[in-house]
Amino acid sequence: MSTTDHRSAPLPQPTAETVDFPLVHRTGYLLHKAGLLLMHEADRALESRGMRMRYFYVLAALEGQISLSQQDLSRLLNLDPTTMVALIDEMEEAGHVERRRNPADRRRYILHLTDAGRQALAGATRAVDDAEQGFLAAVGSADRDRLRQILGELLADRWPSVVACED
């Protein structure tokens, strides 16, 4: 186990706001704070589309090739199952998502992105991309790529499992 002091890495230059705020030395806090700020910016960008980040995340998750159930999305997105049901109801009513019975387990539904959902996702993706680019503008392209790679490495093997759904 390493005995490296958590303060040994280079830190941002102290400002009046950080001089006496020891949490600026905690990677977990900085990740959390950056994530909250980025989510806020993305939420603001999605407001004009009548959407919030969790709605966007569901659309984006369903764009993939893996068949997902409400339960799977609830675990993957860390949303309460009751909240997920209400969100999927809203998305189904908007014509963006449809529920289909899972042929392998008739008690479960597989969620499918509709054509209208794909269109909504395309516009929302542009808005979220713009928000992310704005938030990360102070960081060079290579460092943004490296940050994404590092985060991927940190999260590898830490995703909740999903139930295999057969179409």
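Next protein, fold it too.
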Amino acid sequence: MNNIRLIATIVAKENHENEVLSACKAMIKPSHQDEGCIQYELHKDTTQPRTFIFFEIWENQGAIDKHNETAHMKAFVENLKDKMDSLEIKFIEKLA
């Protein structure tokens, strides 16, 4: 069975970059501890300073579903809902 890869892109509202960055950084350790988490990395777009990108690899969809129901994920979404312009999730497939 193939792992599931995704990219979550968050665009912070103007003047909320630092709050969004802090919240994103705080997600790394607990997410690494979630069952089925293989990789969970935070990146920043070098041309769009308000854009933060998570690159994630999970064992399966069940692991993603459990991650989405954790207290840390629910708090993250709730705390940032008024500080984000957008949150986009793309499922990707490694080709080579």
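About the second fold: The first strand starts at residue 4 and ends at 12.
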